[in-house]
Amino acid sequence: MIPALMPNYNRADLAFERGEGAWLWDGQGRRYLDFGSGIATSSLGHAHPHLVAAIAEQAGKVMHSSNLYRIPQAERLAARLVEATPFADSVYFSNSGAEANEAMVKAVRKYHADAGHPERFRTICFEGAFHGRTLAMISATGNKKYLEGFGPPVDGFDHVPFGNMNAVRDAITAETAAIMIEPVQGEGGVRPADLRFLQELRATCDEFGLLLALDEVQTGMGRSGKLWAHQWAGIEPDIMSSAKGIGGGFPLAATLAKEKVAVHLKPGTHGSTYGGGPLACAAGNAVLDVILAPGFLDKVDHVARYLWRGMLDLAARHPKVVVGVQGAGLLLGLRLTDAVSNGEMQGAALAEGLLTVAAGMNVLRVAPPLVITEAEVDEALRLLDRACLRMTPGEAKAAAK
Fold this sequence. Notes:
Elements: E1 16-20, E2 23-26, E3 31-34, H1 37-40, H2 49-59, H3 72-84, E4 90-94, H4 97-114, E5 122-126, H5 135-141, H6 144-147, E6 157-160, H7 165-171, E7 176-181, E8 184-185, E9 191-192, H8 195-208, E10 211-215, E11 239-242, E12 253-257, H9 259-262, H10 278-291, H11 296-317, E13 322-328, E14 331-336, H12 342-352, E15 354-355, E16 357-359, E17 363-366, H13 374-390, H14 396-400
Parallel strand pairs: 3-15, 5-6, 5-7, 7-10, 10-11
Antiparallel strand pairs: 1-2, 2-3, 4-12, 8-9, 11-12, 13-14, 14-17, 16-17
Helix pairs in contact: 2-10, 3-10, 11-13, 12-13
């Protein structure tokens, strides 16, 4: 008999009862160090007092009123995001990364249509991308595994190799509207785009009259050590999506755009029942309070570099398990040897009490809360070391002691 919950998730037989900071406890009282953050979502860790208080206070007032009326919490959050984001002039709120990306693609198409070029509706995307699970976004992702069984892909997305500028230019036609890219491919193997490549994409968009659309669902909100990962390249997109860490675990997403793009989403062109509601935006404002506090992002950058060095050392000690380290900021991955699958490695880390996330290209992804300390990094590296021993022939017994 099918379970009451649809079987579309392959869940571990593990449930958590409470959390604090970077730690979670299951029903038996076992403690786990969370280096997955709900897939880079719990940006402030668990039970952060400021975030909890903001949500509780707003829940006791108004949780939902709909976008038929003004929502002061959304107005405040949008203004703060615009002030903190050099390129952005306006923000649209939704509930998930897929929705933020849908809004981004629709805004791109509307921009060109209103400019008298409705034929410009195609977006260049990259192999290894992940943009969400709606029909349009699995088409933008282009992964056959996600497309199988859902009929013809939504038209309008062309895929080229990640990091190949010649392929990008060859793919541009009279129908091309935009280039969409993640500064670091999360699901696709924690692969960072070369900063020069991002700069060349910006120049190419300017050359051909295209819009540069950045998917910062996983890389944004401080995860790279800057508010937005594209800032390391010194470029500005025309439009950008954000989600995951923006609400600290509460469902919230945003699409930020330059005025020239945003003005085309007039009343009636797009919307969301829950998007930008009072409770979600109270959470978003609380998260922003912490992330924009003086010195916070500098600390994230410092701890991220500390973790990077530790993971490089780990890789050097376990060449039979780890090929290398890749990623940026607090979104890093251990690229594993062919003899070890990322699922097995994730299971070994879980057995040691460390939560991680598998990614493409046989990579084990770590995306801890932005509030982690160097001491917690040391503990995570110790647990990863033991997990590597579990996966090394002849060493499993030693790891289990």
